[in-house]
Amino acid sequence: MASEPDPELLAAATAAHLEAYCPYSNYRVGAAIRTGSGAVVVGCNVENAAYPLGSCAEAGAISAMVVAGERSIVEIVVVTDGDTPGTPCGGCRQRLREFAGPDVLVHSVAASGGVLTMTVADLLPHSFGPESLSPE
């Protein structure tokens, strides 16, 4: 398993991270996805005064991917504040699984430089994906 994120994805996720709107938590998150066609799409977290209405960086990047007509994730980089890499929340793990197979790499990167690389299966073992609904 590659332990270092693709430099282009890391740069895109870092730039998205810097644009995050997080006046309540002050915890910036940026995400960059490489799609099946090789395109790179990004998202950042966007908070809201009504806390449950905020959106995650990964969800924003997935929305941008879908709007662009893409339907598969081949790699993702998530950049978070702090000294320890933050991993996608439970909801985003399931969102990623919708468009990424179990072996897709997810690189969590702390803004201070630490990197944690896992697969989607590491993040969401025994997952329920689109193939779970396909007729036999």
User: Main beta sheet: strand number and arrangement?
Assistant: 5 strands, mixed
Helix content: 25-40%
Mean pLDDT comes to 94
- Number of helical segments? 4
Secondary structure tally: strands: 5
The amount of beta strand, in percent, is 15-25%
Structural class: alpha+beta
Enumerate the strands of the largest sheet in spatial order, edge to edge or round the barrel.
2-1-3-4-5
Order of helices and strands: HEEHEHEEH
Oligomer: single chain
Q: In terms of per-residue confidence, which ranges show pLDDT below 50 for 5 or more consecutive residues?
A: none
N- and C-termini, Cα separation: 32 Å
Shape: globular
Q: Radius of gyration over alpha carbons? A: 14 Å
What's the short story on this structure?
The protein is α+β, with helices and mostly antiparallel strands and 136 residues long. The chain contains 4 helices and 5 strands; from the N terminus they run αββαβαββα.
Report on the structure:
There is one protein chain. The protein is built from four helices and five strands. Helix content is 27%, strand content 23%. A five-stranded mixed sheet has the order 2-1-3-4-5. The mean pLDDT is 94. It has helices at 7-18, 57-67, 90-99, 120-123; strands at 29-35, 40-44, 73-80, 105-110, 115-119. It is an alpha+beta fold. 37% of the residues are buried.
List keywords for this structure.
single chain, 136 residues, alpha+beta, five-stranded mixed beta sheet, 4 helices
Strand and helix layout:
Layout: H1 7-18, E1 29-35, E2 40-44, H2 57-67, E3 73-80, H3 90-99, E4 105-110, E5 115-119, H4 120-123
Parallel strand pairs: 3-4
Antiparallel strand pairs: 1-2, 1-3, 4-5
